Amino acid sequence: MRVRPLALALVAAVTVAVAPAPPAAAATPDRWGFAAVWNPTVPAGTTLDTTRQWGSWRAAFPALWATGGKLAVGLFRVTFPQVASGTRGTVHVTAVSRAGNYCEVFRWGSAGADEIVDVACHRPGGILADTPFTIMWSTSSGVFPPGAYATAQVNTAGAAVQWYNSTGAGAPGTGLLTPGRYLVRIPGVGVVGAGLSGNVQVTAIQPNAVARRCKVESWSPVGLEIDVVVVCVNAAGALTSTDFFITYHRQRAVFGAVDVPKYFGYIWSAGGGQTNYNHQLGFGANGVGMLAGGTYEVKYPQIGIRETNTHVTAYGDGPNYCGLGQPWVNAGSDALVNVMCFDNTGNPANYRFLSTFTSRH
After folding, report:
1. Residues with Cβ < 8 Å from 209, sequence gap 6 or more?
2. What top-level branch of life does the organism fall under (predicted)?
3. Considering 250, 274, 296, which residue would you say is the last residue of a domain?
């Protein structure tokens, strides 16, 4: 990888901060939810697609569903009922757009018994634009094998505001390398001798709903540690210091669960080995094929079961980015995910990415 020598040189010089420990509690995840917003113009309180949502509240409140509604142009609020956790937890959002629109988190917290997440979406050039998207929120605590699951919220200065690590290995080391470039060292989650393993997802946070994007520039194993370099840009594609969420998951669903769901997987389009995992079929079962310039189909065999959710994060240097080109399809028991990647002007561009997919079942 041509970016890695520079990244490793910067790593040697960066001051790495360690975040305070999260509160101890039961097995992960404590609370979670996922949903899809196909029509970003619906009014507040609209029930979101019930075939593409689920959450931890469903066990105690089976009649309740995640709802949503437009706040203003390009701004949308998702409400997960009965799981209020304040500003704890991690959020990932992925735009669904063939025109190169992209989305970020700009606010989240509790409203009574509910957890709300406000999402901002922009078209190329940075103008707010109503855009379909997928969303996942999860908060976790406690030590719970197997596999590994780690999350962090990192601020513009490179400090971890909150974090979680299912292995009990402790806080991530985080730091600002240069403006807009961050190092996140996640301890205890890798597999010695396996090279890269698992999957990484990154989502920008911008509290004023100004256009920002974040992605993985490079990642590498160091013993049991996974080191990730995250880069963030503004609407012009220039490196810009930005808050972000990061999730690492290995043989776990992206929201952190272990035994349920049993139908999940992930793949890195630039690699193989243990970065391609299917919980039903094992390593190497998922596939990526190019449909057209900048457009790809990811096939997840035998895990497109019941309510599902998917996310994608671009991988590499430069301002290019990726999202979903259209809603995913459950074809029999297979899941077919359409990924599109773009240059900074919103034109389709061949690029690399990390994809993750999960059912609630």
Report:
1. 74, 75, 104, 106, 120, 128
2. Bacteria
3. 250
In contact, 291 and 328? CB cutoff 8 Å:
no
- The secondary structure of 58-83, three-state, reads HHCCCCCCCEEEEEECCEEEEEECCC
| Residue 21: inside a domain | no
Q: Domain span at residue 95?
A: 31-139
- Name the CA radius of gyration of the chain, rounded: 18
Give dist(CA 151, CA 256) in Å, integer.
9
Q: Which amino acid is residue 302, in one-letter code? A: Q
Same domain? 322 vs 225 = no
Q: For residue 127, is it within any domain?
A: yes
Q: Which of 9-23, 112-126, 131-145 has the highest mean pLDDT?
A: 112-126
Shared domain for 151 and 245, answered yes or no, is yes
Q: Which of 139, 155, 178 is the last residue of a domain?
A: 139
Query: Quick check: 315 pLDDT over 80?
Result: yes
DSSP per-residue codes, 230-267: EEEEETTS-B---EEEEEEEESS-TT--SSS---EEEE
Q: Which of 204-208, 328-332, 349-353 has the lowest mean pLDDT?
A: 328-332
Q: Are residues 66 and 119 in the same domain?
A: yes
- Higher-confidence position of 27 and 86: 86
pTM assigned to the model: 0.93
